[in-house]
Amino acid sequence: LDFCVILWSFRVFLWLVCVFLGSFCVCACCQLLIYIYIYIYSTYTFCVFWLFVCFLSHFDNFIPAVWVFSLSFCVFFGLCDVCVISRCVQGFAAELSEEVKTLGIPSEVIDMKDYDPDDQLADECTSRTVCVFIVATYTDGRPTENAQWFCKWLEEASTDFRYGKTYLKGLRYAVLGLGNSAYVGHYNTVGKNVDKWLWMLSGVRIMTRGEGDCNVVKSRNGSVQDDFLAWKAHFLRRLQALARGDSGSRSSKSSCMKTDGADHEGEEPTLTNHSSEEELMETSSDEEQSDERTSGSVVDVEDLGNLMDSVKKSKVPETHVSVIQKVSSILLLFRKRKLWILYPRVCLRNMYSRVKSLFAGYKLIGSHSGVKLCRWTKSMLRGRGGCYKHTFYGIESHRCMETTPSLACANKCVFCWRHHTNPVGTEWLWKMDPAEKILEEAMEKHQNMIRQFKGVPGVLPERYQEGLAIKHCALSLVGEPIMYPEINTFLRLLHSQRISSFLVTNAQFPQEIRNLVPVTQLYVSVDASTKDSLKKIDRPLFKDFWPRFLDSLRALGEKRQRTVYRLTLVKAWNVEEMQSYSELIALGQPDFIEVKGVTYCGESSASTLTMANVPWHQEVVAFVRQLADMLPQYEIACEHEHSNCLLIAHTKFKVDGEWRTWIDYERFQELVEAHEASGGTRSFSALDYMSQTPHWALFGAQEQGFDPADTRFQRRNKTKDVSGC
């Protein structure tokens, strides 16, 4: 009785304890379920285990077909003169190559420093080549010296929409990473990354990534040499399994870069391996020590379609096929929906934190700025031609810095090449960094990116030296640079460094346009010619976007320096509004009109554009001809066929029958200095710093805008690149 009285007196306390314990148990169970979900989702363990354990136990013919093709083989390695591990890399590569040759398979060992992936790696996709990458992790998780450029290119390509998710589709590869597990935070980082990047580009693993550990205490086989021997034995078995269906005629070419697979066309089954946002699946080598009869035993969810085809073609009972179909459909649905609500999310107000993980390849500056190396900068460093600005206005693409002081934008354009991962807003909401800091860090980061090209195959030494001296700045990277409150200070700092300025705005800030100091060239993006189409294409945030748009064009017409309308053609969206475009041109009276076909930026949930919306170059030319015929004071001046872009120029730039669309940059700097020295009273116009356009840049020239001083280069077996900058 006394005990009951005591319990009753403490009933409130006991009730609270029960509630607390119950809540704790519920939370713990939920968290456990989340971890189980993430584990199953990220590794596809359930898919592989269920399909291959349950069904293989019931019938023997549920085995995907072995690849049948003539093999060649190459080993890529990276090393460093002062790195002990990297010396093992070279020895392992040579040893593996000799072992492969004993199997009658042509083999080659390649130093990554002497290999240009931009030129040659895509060729391995069409040849019957198995590529092995033996890479070591050096200080702070970085690649060794010889592998730095290869790894940097691979990382950028895996996140660059211009290459696409299927750029290395058909490449068969294996990765062996060497490292020391004593360095916990960086153990085998390079090997993991190389494997991940190749997979993101749709390369096909022929086996799980191997690891060699220099830490003898934790090494699986006792030493890095023994780890290699164990991996090598497993790899050779895998290689023999791939070649088992060979007809006996092997490729006579030993170079992995020149193996011709045309004679075997159609022999290999299509294996898709699309990249996704999930983490790369990691498994241990022990998981693949079983008999090699199950070719391609690691199956991603995306490959279930191909797996189902194999099942249907084999003699499998219909009941089993039905079950497999149900399981695969559930897994695919599970993957597509992603159930984001289960993932803990942290929302940060700082713009830098928000975009840090989203802008692959960007060098972020402070809290709201960024710089990135343009693809045309890389191209011109190799003497392969510059961007359309080189053709139209004479900039040196390898000396151009592409940056922005504001990653935020007031539009959400359907063709945005950042897929709307950047912040948006109608006013400045972020902690502002000083213009001096932004420019200093932008130049430093840009020059550091240029320095990474030192010694890269194909880079011209004289272009490399010139590239370190920045001469032009394209404020068109992403976002709306004119939103930055200190944009005029930033422009003055550029000019004080004798750097020309190319500023792009989306025509939503008319007052800021009027307040701008003189720039080398001022752009306004005119993506549509009517209110409805502008709303549909640009999706502006301002409710009064149309009055702002028209007022911005009027403000542009008040400027005395060079002004440009930038028209982006999107087939089936804005190519039928010819008369409306001519009216907008009459409103702003720009010096130049750039007309460019939209660039396809890949699939995105934020955009419905497809390749069908990308106009062919001849379609852009036809549009420009019609538009120029409606403009009495304008004519077609220049063409850059590679960028799918043409330039319409005001006839005032046609002096004595010769076009002068190029810019005298030194003269511009002199005029700006005089303008600043006079306190703004001494003005100048676009005609004061124009220069003659070379014949190869003119519309109708045989070169179609390609500088004959450079060497034309086109990737083989890839779709045509129509991207610009």
From TrEMBL:
Reactions the enzyme catalyzes: N(1)-methylguanosine(37) in tRNA(Phe) + pyruvate + S-adenosyl-L-methionine = 4-demethylwyosine(37) in tRNA(Phe) + 5'-deoxyadenosine + L-methionine + CO2 + H2O
The keyword 4Fe-4S is assigned to this record: yes
Region (Disordered): 246-297
Cofactor: [4Fe-4S] cluster
Domain Flavodoxin-like span(s) in chain numbering: 82-236
EC number: 4.1.3.44
Membrane-traversing stretches: 12-34, 41-59, 65-85
Pfam families: Flavodoxin_1, Radical_SAM, Wyosine_form
Gene3D superfamilies from the UniProt entry: 3.40.50.360, Aldolase class I
GO biological process terms, semicolon-separated: wybutosine biosynthetic process
Pathways involved: tRNA modification; wybutosine-tRNA(Phe) biosynthesis
Residue ranges, compositional bias (Acidic residues): 278-290
Family, as annotated: Belongs to the TYW1 family.
Protein name (database record): S-adenosyl-L-methionine-dependent tRNA 4-demethylwyosine synthase TYW1
Organism per entry: Gouania willdenowi
Gene that specifies this protein: tyw1
